[in-house]
C-alpha cells in the first residue's frame, strides 16, 4: 500500500475510534481536532466520551507513539474527514464543518494524497469537498490534467453502532465510492488495513446515498412502531403486548416504540434525502415527522400525570438523557428534548435528571434553574412523577420499585 501515514480530521465518536484502530494495526496516525480539550485528552491517552474498549486502544496507541493529536492538519499520505454534518432549522444540511476541514487540509497537500470523507453527507458532498480543496490548490487536480499532481477523493460512510464501535469497525462490510475508480481502489487499500468485512466499491454519489437509505429504512420502521404506540394508546391497548403477539407471525418483525429517535444518524440522515428529492421522498418525510412528533406526545402524558398528582411544586424524575441505552451520547436525543420541555412547562417543579453515564448536566439543561443531576436512589425517593426515557441496563431493575408509582413509561420497562 502506498499509504504510510494517515491524518484523521475530527476526533469525535467516529474519528477517534478510526484513528485508534488504524494505529492498532501499525499505521502512524495524526488526529486533528479544533477542540484543545480533545487534543489534550488524546495526547494523555484518554478518551473524552464513553465507548466500550476504546480507552484501551487509545492509551496503547499513544503510548506506542503511533497516535498523537494536533489542532491543525499536517502532511500525510491519506486524510479521513470525520466531522459533524448537522442540519439547520429548516432541515437543510450544514456542510460548514466539511468545508472548514477541506480548507484546512488544502495548504498541506503535495499531490498524490487520498482524501476520504467519512461524514454522513447529502449526495454530491464528496465532489463539493474536492472543489473546495482544488479551489485553494489549482496546482492540483482530480485526474492529472495539465500535468498537475492528482489528489484522490472518495467517500466511505461509517456504519457502526455506538456501544459496539470497536467491534463493528473491524467486522462490518464497508461501502467505498470514489470520484474516480482509482480513488475508490486506493480507499479500499486503506480500509483493508483493519476491515475484515467485504469492501464494496461504487461511485461517490451512490456511496453517499446508500448510507442515507440505510438509516431512512430504519427510521421508517421505527416510525411504524411509534405510530402504533399512539394508536394503541387511543384504543386502550398495551402496545408492547400487541407487538409481542403480532411478531409471532413468521413474516412480521415490528420494532419497539420509544420517546422518539435520536443520535446523529437516524434522526438526521433521512432529511438529507428529503432535501435532495422533496417531491419524491414522501414516506421518508412522514416517518421523520412521526418520530420527531413523539416527544410532544410524551410531554402531554407527563402533563396529564402532573395534573393527576395535583401538587403545586411537583418533583419529576426523568430517567435517561442519552439517545440510546448504555452510552453517554446526547446528540439529537429525544430524552434531552423531553426533559428540557418538562422543565420549561413546569417552572415551579423540581426536575431530577438521572443519567448514569454523565458526570454533569449538559449546557441545555444546566441553564435551567429547576433541573439538577440526580442518582437513581434520590429520584426513586423524591420523585412524584417518574418518566422512563432510556432503557439503560441500570433502569431495568426499576419495575419493582416503581410498581405503585405515577409513571410515564416510554420504553416498556415496567412490563
Notable traits:
415 residues; alpha/beta; five-stranded parallel beta sheet; 13 strands; 13% strand
- By secondary-structure content and strand pairing, the structural class works out as alpha/beta
How large a portion of the residues is in β-strands, by DSSP E?
5-15%
Counting H and I runs of at least 4 residues, what is the number of helices? 14
If you compute it from the alpha carbons, what radius of gyration comes out, rounded to the nearest whole angstrom? 23 Å
From the N-terminal CA to the C-terminal CA, the straight-line distance is 54 Å
User: What's the shape?
Assistant: globular
Unreliably modeled segments? none
Instruction: Report helical residue fraction.
Output: 40-55%
Main β-sheet, spatial strand arrangement: 3-2-1-4-5-6-7-8
Please state the average pLDDT score.
96
> In total, how many beta strands?
13
Question: Sheet bearing the most strands, described?
Answer: 8 strands, mixed
Order of helices and strands: EHEHHEEHEHEHEHEHHHHEHEHEHEE
Oligomer: single chain
Task: Tell me what the structure shows.
The relative contact order is 0.09. α11 crosses α12 (about 335-345). This protein has 14 helices and 13 strands. The mean pLDDT is about 95. The chain is globular, with a radius of gyration of 23 Å. With about 425 residues, the protein is α/β, with parallel strands linked by helices. It has an 8-stranded mixed β-sheet, sandwiched between helices. Strands 11-10-9-12-13 form a 5-stranded parallel β-sheet, with helices on both faces.
